[in-house]
Amino acid sequence: MAHGSFDYAYPLGQPAATLWYHDHRMDFTGPQVYRGLAGFHLVHDAVEEALPLPRQERDVPLMICDRAFAADGSFHYPSIDSSLTGEPGVTSDFMKGVLGDVILVNGAPWPVLEVAAVRYRFRLLNASNARRYQLALDPPPPSGAAFVQVGSDVGLLGRPIDHEAIDIAPAERFDVVVDFGSYPVGTQVTLVNRYGTGSTGQVMRFHVVRKARDDSTVPPRLADFEQLSPPSAVTRRMKFSRSGSHYETWTINGQAFDRNRIDAQVSLGATERWLITTNADHPVHIHLGHFQVLSRNGGKPGPYDAGWKDTVDMRPEDEVEIVVRFNGYRGRYVFHCHNLEHEDMAMMANIEVT
Ligand SMILES: [Cu+2]
Questions:
Q1: Rounded to the nearest whole angstrom, what is the distance from the C-alpha of residue 182 to the centroid of ligand 1?
Q2: How far is the CA of 27 from the centre of ligand 1 (A)?
Q3: What is the mean pLDDT of residues 212-222?
Q4: Long-range CB contacts (< 8 A, 24+ apart) of 191-196?
């Protein structure tokens, strides 16, 4: 067994964003994250500080995930090798991804947050290994949108977007404002998951306990948003599918991950246009290169595609075009499906930035 330590220095030369980090150990990311090796990393800047958004105790990160527990309270994760030292992956029943029947928010099952009847900013993160959610408020607010989105995975939007509900795939973040001001004091508001049933249909509850002064607003302009200009033609095609000689693994362009193979060579600063296709649910995540969605299934981007992204929610048989810019650093990076079981079962590829 090898032991050691590393110091990592992050210059954080990027605009304000709701980032998160998690263990990424080769072949065993799913069980490691399942055991809790994940957290938020919020980046702030002067642009964000100048906005009149809710702040301090009214700016609340919410890490949402699902887990299953054994009778003794331990995490129940169907690893082929529970020592996490031998064969990676999960038993064949869980090939599509591991789902739990308990929803945790910031590590607590179905928690309750007491709130004042004012605006709150919530950094919604889907930290689940494989579960997609459709988040909504029950009851919906008597007036106004349930969620006013102000940011996406990697930064503020140019302008806020109203949502009645939010579809969120693993690794996606939605930075939203919820105004409890239109609910009468005493109301219990449940954050529900419309894609769940029974115990997975509820996420957490807000209890509106008092009136309070609210100086916050959501301004019509949030940040200067740089719309990337894509090359006129598609530069790369990426197909995320289940294949292999016995249809036994998850692949990109028909190939399982090989740490020694470079799948995409990119020069530093390049802007590329990728056409991504799928044959199942795959949240596609790219390291280093932040991107914007150009089109979904030949039409406009979807309602949850706005802003700077590092993960795009892809449904079965979807075709999504993105414009991605690789700036900042040279080196070798991966892109992969952020369904962690798919990732551990080889749905990952290498980019070399030179
Ligand atoms: Cu996948």
A1: 40
A2: 14
A3: 98
A4: 191/135, 191/136, 191/137, 192/135, 192/136, 192/137, 192/138, 193/103, 193/133, 193/134, 193/135, 194/134, 194/135, 194/136, 194/165, 195/132, 195/133, 195/134, 196/103, 196/133
Neighbours of ion ligand 1 (CB under 5 A): 282, 337, 339, 342
| pTM given for the model | 0.96
For the stretch 60-71, pLDDT in tens is: 999 999 999 999
Cα–ligand 1 centroid distance for 29 (angstroms): 14
CB 350: neighbour CB atoms within 10 A? Answer: 19
Query: Measured in angstroms, how far is the CA atom of residue 117 from the centroid of ligand 1?
Result: 40
Expressed in angstroms and rounded, the spacing between residue 82 Cα and the centre of ligand 1 is 22
Per-residue model confidence (pLDDT) at position 2: 78
Nearest-angstrom CA–CA distance, 120 and 114: 12
Residue count of the chain: 354
Predicted confidence at residue 248, as pLDDT, reads 74
